[in-house]
Amino acid sequence: MRARALVAHACVCLCLVQMTVSLRAHHAFAAEFDANKPITFKGTLTKMEWTNPHVWLYLDVKKPNGTVEHWACEAGSPNALFRRGFTKKSMAPGAELMIDGYQAKDGSRRANGRDVTFADGRKLFLGSSGTGAPYELTPDKDRVP
C-alpha cells in the first residue's frame, strides 16, 4: 500500500513539473515583442521550423549597403498555420518573402510576424489568436457586424 502511494505521488509530481515547463515555454506577445515597433522587411527564406508552440521563419535580409542581416520571425502554431493553408512545403528555402510584424522589445533581429507576402502577391496571416498583438480595426468605426 505504501509503495502504491509513493508511485502515485511521484506520478503527480512528474505531471506538475511537465505542466510547469510547458507553461514557461510559451509566452505572451507583450513579454517579448513591442506593439509600438511595427516592422516590415523583405528577405530570402533560409529555414522554416515547424515546432510547438510557434513556427519560426529565418530570413536573410539584404541591406542597401550590401550587408546581410539574419532575422528570425515568430509565427502562429503549426496547427493554426496549417488551418490557414500553410504546409511545410508552402515556403521553400530561397523564397522571397515580405514580413509585416512587430520587433522584439530588446531591439534584436527577431519579430512576431503578422503577415507574409509572397513574391506573386499572395498574402497570408502569420499571427496566432490571442498573441496580444494590437487590434487591427478601430473598435467602433471599422467593426464588421
- Assign the CATH class of the domain at 29-125: Mainly Beta
Return the CATH architecture of the domain at 29-125: Beta Barrel
Spans where pLDDT lies below 50 across 5 or more residues: 19-25, 129-145
Morphology call: globular
Arithmetic mean of pLDDT: 78
- In total, how many beta strands? 6
Overall helicity: 10-25%
Report the total helices: 3
Structure description:
Helices cover 23% and strands 37% of the residues. The termini are far apart. It has a domain at 29-125: Beta Barrel (OB fold (Dihydrolipoamide Acetyltransferase, E2P)), CATH 2.40.50.140. With 145 residues, the protein is α+β, with helices and mostly antiparallel strands. It is built from 3 helices and 6 strands, in the order H-H-E-E-E-H-E-E-E. The model is unreliable at 19-25 and 129-145 (pLDDT under 50). It is globular and about 75 Å long. The chain has a 5-stranded mixed β-barrel with strand order 1-2-3-5-4.
What descriptive keywords fit this protein?
alpha+beta; single chain; 145 residues; OB fold (Dihydrolipoamide Acetyltransferase, E2P); 3 helices; disordered C terminus
Topology of helices and strands:
Blueprint: H1 2-25, H2 29-32, E1 33-50, E2 55-62, E3 68-74, H3 78-83, E4 96-104, E5 110-118, E6 123-125
Parallel strand pairs: 3-5
Antiparallel strand pairs: 1-2, 1-4, 2-3, 4-5, 5-6
Structure summarized in a few sentences:
The chain has three helices and six strands; from the N terminus they run H-H-E-E-E-H-E-E-E. It has 145 residues and is of the alpha+beta class.
